[in-house]
Design goal:
Elements: H1 4-7, H2 13-19, H3 37-48, E1 54-57, E2 61-68, E3 71-75, H4 78-82, H5 87-96, H6 100-117, H7 122-129, E4 134-141, E5 156-166, E6 171-176, H8 178-189, E7 199-201, E8 205-208, H9 214-231, H10 239-254, H11 260-272, H12 279-285, H13 288-299, H14 301-324, E9 327-328, H15 335-356, H16 361-376, E10 388-393, E11 396-401, H17 404-417
Parallel strand pairs: 5-7
Antiparallel strand pairs: 1-8, 1-10, 2-3, 2-4, 4-5, 5-6, 8-9, 10-11
């Protein structure tokens, strides 16, 4: 019998804390349910035409920093937006999660920012951070906890922009990219950018090379138009409309659910986390076979979500990877060495998995899926010396990336399976 008490239990805050949740992160295009297809095509065109104000998205650990009640605090999930973590709390939490290196890295960043902010008048800090409702999005770059890209021996805290939240609900109110530049300038003028553990840097401006991408823009636009047509969508349709349509298509094609109302309820629940229909009603609407399908899908909904998103996300990531191969001004200490190092590490990991772990079906499937996605946007030829770029559009901070996510997944396959 299905246990409906745990049936739709969300990923608990422990996971968000380790993965970063949405706090300190910028949005992919598909993360904004209200972004329209017309806007997606517009942003791809503007990006490849060099008309957006880009800064670098560095490959560090994301952390959101604020100033509340006289001290610096950090957030990585909804609970810590309301009650920002002190350096000591960060160490304790990450020690309990068997990840003390990251905990120490974050704690030292909080301490360094606390020391730096002591040089700014209290009233100015309260005006900037609104006593804990405004968080500075930061990347913590530490050679001891390197992800994919090599920044040499630099230990850096990089500001990307600021986000204001309703601290009670944890919901985002708006973003202000200019605050990161403002804070960096204040700290620079005070002569406190170099702290005990880290150096503080501001947004790294990225410029696109002077290349005519009109043919590629037309190609991406055509692919998106065909995708829209197949789903009965138009330029005014949103990401929310797309996801609901894809989930409905998946549920109907499974042949497992016959009740049209239940199909709508499940599509909305899985696509946009709409839980307006409670579990008792869902239970009463479904027979035992339908409940089995619902349970199985729900247990794998993150993977299924990615599968349903992939047709659109691969177009966006393809455009992003093309952009990243043709920009200048990034932080990486040696761009060519970085690309070669990542390529060689990929080859070594793939070879090791194929020769030593070929009997691990789960590991092999994960690698195959990541390689297929990577090949879909050009394979290793699209490896770039930076994770992505960041820009502001309609009061929201977006990131445009390319091959990074799949490269990162492949490189971490053995690390996290051990």
């Amino acid at each position: 019998m299905i246990n409906f008490k745990t049936f739709y239990k969300s990923r608990i805050s422990d996971e968000l804390l380790l993965e970063g949740g949405t706090y300190g992160h910028m949005s992919h295009f598909w993360d904004n349910p209200d972004l329209t297809f017309g806007e997606i095509k517009f942003l791809i065109k503007e990006a490849l035409s060099g008309n957006l104000d880009f800064t670098e998205k560095t490959d560090g650990q994301a952390l959101a920093l604020t100033y509340k009640n006289g001290r610096v605090g950090a957030a990585r999930n909804k609970a810590t937006i309301k009650n920002p973590m002190s350096a000591e709390e960060i160490i304790s939490i990450f020690k309990a999660k068997n990840n003390p290196t990251v905990g120490t890295s974050f704690a030292n960043a909080v301490r360094d920012i606390q020391t730096a902010l002591m040089n700014i008048p209290e009233d100015k800090l309260n005006d900037m951070f609104k006593n804990g409702s405004v968080f500075m999005n930061a990347e913590i770059i530490n050679p001891g906890s390197k992800n994919v890209f090599d920044y040499g021996n630099k230990s850096l805290i990089q500001f990307h922009g600021a986000t204001e939240y309703d601290v009670e609900s944890g919901k985002m109110i708006g973003s202000d990219r200019s605050l990161s530049k403002k804070l960096y300038t204040i700290l620079k003028n005070a002569g406190v950018l170099n702290q005990k553990n880290y150096s503080i840097i501001g947004p790294q401006k990225i410029e696109i090379k002077d290349i005519d991408f009109s043919k590629e823009i037309s190609n991406y636009t055509g692919k998106i138009n065909r995708l829209m047509k197949n789903l009965g969508l138009n330029d005014s349709s949103t990401m929310k409309d797309y996801l609901i349509s894809k989930w409905k298509e998946f549920i109907i094609s499974s042949g497992k659910i016959e009740n049209k109302d239940l199909i709508d309820i499940l599509a909305n629940r899985w696509a946009i986390d709409d839980k307006s229909v409670n579990l008792k009603i869902i239970k009463s609407m479904a027979n035992e076979n339908e409940l089995d399908f619902i349970t199985q899908t729900d247990s794998n909904k993150v993977q299924q979500y990615n599968n349903l998103l992939s047709e659109l996300s691969s177009i966006i990531l393809d455009a992003g990877s093309l952009l990243l191969k043709n920009v200048k001004g990034f932080v990486a200490s040696n761009p060519n060495n970085t690309i070669n190092s990542i390529s060689n590490e990929l080859d070594n990991i793939i070879k090791e998995i194929k020769t030593k772990h070929s009997d691990d079906d789960k590991l092999m499937t994960k690698m195959k899926s990541a390689l297929e996605r990577l090949d879909a946007i050009g394979g290793k030829d699209r490896i770039a010396p930076l994770e992505g770029v960041v820009f502001m559009y309609k009061d929201r901070i977006y990131k445009l990336t390319g091959a990074f996510a799949d490269i990162n997944q492949i490189l971490g396959l053995l690390r996290y399976s051990r």
